[in-house]
Design brief:
The chain has 255 residues and is mainly α. It folds into 2 domains: 9-83; 90-254, no CATH class. The chain has 10 helices and no strands. The N and C termini lie close together (6 Å). The chain crosses the membrane at residues 12-38, 58-75. Keywords: Membrane, Transmembrane, Transmembrane helix.
Length: 255
């Protein structure tokens, strides 16, 4: 499904320009140019007097379009400045997130091996994120473009889901192997998403690739110290999930 921006101010400003500017050009041609082909100054002046009310309205309309555009540009410039300020701490927070994900991988593998070997569960340390990380993301979301804001919100949601699931399996290991594969894949996908944010955080790029394929997932798993040969059916699960992601993207592009 497409996301319609019918209620966004930017849409109305664009619509106003799309309709208003050509209308004013047409008005100018017929009011200021064409009369000269039919008479002298007295005739042109008479036309302007006859249409004085319309002329006043068009001038007011032109002033409104100008004011809307000036306001829109000013708001966008302020948003950009606020976003630059809010993302100043983002590189450090992303470094902290990478460390958090590495610690999460260690804890998750510990829970997995305990479950696989059915050994007695020893205490597994569950890494935690401070509220400051979430606050930085929230500030960036507030001032980002809709596309970047949606991506940051997605990462924030993935972090919260990951944290809850990790704490659950570390306290009470699951016997369902597929569930662990779900967690491993989610962790790798989160790693890919966080890594994609670094160019944006450093001000090198304004867009985020958001590309998730088997190559990026496998690379993320290796960076986290997770390997297919050590985890039962993980590679087949990754193939399955990547296939679903590709199918969903193809479906959305065809919609």
């Amino acid at each position: 499904m497409y996301r319609f921006g019918l209620f966004k101010p930017k849409f109305y400003v664009g619509l106003l320009n799309y309709v208003g500017v050509p209308s004013i050009i047409i008005y100018f041609v017929f009011m200021c140019v064409m009369p000269w082909f039919y008479g002298d100054w007295d005739y042109v002046h008479g036309v302007w007097l006859d249409w004085q009310t319309l002329n006043t309205g068009v001038l007011a309309f032109l002033s409104s379009i100008t004011a809307f555009n000036i306001s829109s540009v000013a708001v966008e410039k302020q948003r950009q400045r606020d976003f630059v300020a809010s993302r100043a701490l983002l590189p450090q927070k992303l470094d902290d997130l990478c460390q958090y994900l590495s610690e999460s991988a260690t804890s998750l593998q510990g829970a997995y091996y305990h479950s696989k070997n059915r050994s007695k569960m020893s205490e597994i340390k569950v890494p935690k994120l401070s509220d400051a990380h979430f606050e930085t993301f929230q500030e960036c979301i507030r001032h980002a473009t809709p596309e970047v804001g949606d991506y940051l919100a997605k990462v924030l949601n993935m972090l919260q889901v990951h944290g809850a699931r990790l704490e659950s399996v570390c306290k009470k290991p699951q016997t369902n192997r597929r569930y662990y594969n779900t967690l491993f894949f989610g962790l790798a996908e989160l790693k890919v998403s966080v890594d994609d944010l670094f160019p944006l955080a450093r001000g090198e790029e304004d867009n985020i690739s958001g590309k998730v394929d088997k190559e990026s997932i496998t690379r993320a798993l290796h960076l986290l110290g997770i390997y297919y040969e050590n985890t039962e059916n993980l590679e087949s699960y990754v193939n399955e999930q990547v296939g679903k992601i590709s199918h969903n993207k193809a479906f959305k592009s065809d919609s």
